[in-house]
């Protein structure tokens, strides 16, 4: 992509979304510190005024030298100049400290809000967004933004104010000379706009590339076992190096585009100096005009003082574009509203242990593939309901809908007669003890992993739950040792027993078991099942299992096939029908014999 000055597709310097994002950021995170911001502006303005006074003093000093030759006046001027710069030094220490504090605080608050948002997003957000991107948004982007706001913006403010103050001084001193100097301004403005546009485009790609890189690393780190067994180390290495190279290339391109700004200002400056020296020299030599040597030298000095901050301010504007892209991507997260949240009049669960009813439920994970349509089932309170069916038939989805991890697209699910969408989420989810199919354990000790589900539980309760789940021995042996990221130091069956222990500890009114004992050996399973039977007593139990032997005792069994309910009844009724359930049961029994 070459920088084409005549490109007609150039977007506006600031789009509406840019403005919205900036206003949002300012109002939410900077405005609360308005007083300190005001102080920063004052300090920064004072720094600009120092330059103005310096010019004024210099002009006077030069006159003293050129015209009068009075030493005493010269001393005074020198002392005043020194004092001015001492003052500037003091403010240039205080300002960055102040601004770093204001910006650091703003970013801390932004992060806190981001964390809160992330925890409330729908599960479907995480199923679509790679973890790397989440980390990018929480770690890298706010960090960059913080530095930019803290240093970049304050420096730019100082530079712009300095430029304005010096410019105002120069205009009042020599309006004509200033007009000559101004002749180069359009070139600078044009360059800012052209370069900004280019940077915006590259930065968008760069954010994506960085996200892909982080996600790649996350995927490899998590999937190391598979990578190694499959012998894919070098393929993964190539993939990661390639994405990393993408990041590098885009970074270089951004810097290259930004680097165009400085020379543009320098060339503009060269023209301005040339014009001013030429025209100014003419005015000094020509006796008709009252411009003297001291005036011209001071004016030139003013221009020199002005161009440096102007240069930096121009550079700021082009880096600003990259930051706007980042700010907008963060702002978008704040615009996303989770769809699964409490309704305004949400109520507490009025009747725990009531019936759970799926009433003509429609649901689809994505628009094209409907999973359920008109699905109706009833899980009686206090009884055990089993759901069986081939893999992918929608068993886990039924359980997810019940806990409102997703909302039904049509129909309703009621709990004790109330639509679950009218219940408070926290209350609803508090009704369930879940042993899920995919077990999540954290990198903490086994004890902490169990305790996690009910932080207020006593030590005795945790131990009792662990014993019921047959994991007490292991817990004693491992002690405080953490179980590794994602519990990688544990076997599948051990992780499953942690999940079962959590269900015992939580002891909520509804027990949900999704292939809860699938990873246990037969002996352990029998013992755990007995304990689970005790847990199920007096509670509503919903169990999903491939093992027909474990669902036999259920009060009601539903047979699911690709999202359709094909059979229902007790074990005896279903066996008597002699259809799908009976075939599945016989097939498994044959396998055992
Ligand atoms: N998060 C998801 N996003 C999109 N599709 C999904 C998601 N989870 C499940 N599916 C799809 O929905 C269907 C039902 O999945 P579900 O997990 O409910 O099956 P299951 O009956 O529990 O199967 P299994 O016995 O293998 O656990 C499957 O076709 C699956 O591909
Ligand atoms: Mg499942």
Can I get a quick summary?
The chain is an alpha/beta fold and 593 residues long. The chain has helices at residues 16-30, 34-68, 71-120, 123-128, 131-173, 175-182, 185-222, 224-229, 233-259, 261-285, 293-335, 395-402, 425-429, 446-451, 459-468, 472-478, 492-506, 522-536, 548-551, 571-577, 580-592, and strands spanning 356-366, 369-379, 384-389, 410-415, 418-419, 432-435, 510-514, 540-544, 556-561, 564-569. α2 (34-68) runs antiparallel to α11, α5 packs antiparallel against α6 and α5 runs antiparallel to α7 (185-222).
Structure description:
- With about 600 residues, the chain is of the alpha/beta class.
- The protein folds into 2 domains: about 20-335, ABC transporter transmembrane region fold; about 355-590, Rossmann fold (3-Layer(aba) Sandwich).
- It contains 21 helices and 10 strands.
- It has helices spanning about 15-30, 35-70, 70-120, 125-130, 130-175, 175-180, 185-220, 225-230, 235-260, 260-285, 295-335, 395-400, 425-430, 445-450, 460-470, 470-480, 490-505, 520-535, 550, 570-575, 580-590, and strands spanning about 355-365, 370-380, 385-390, 410-415, 420, 430-435, 510-515, 540-545, 555-560, 565-570.
- The two termini are about 70 Å apart.
- The structure holds adenosine-5'-triphosphate and magnesium ion (MG).
- Adenosine-5'-triphosphate binds near residues 393, 397 and 437.
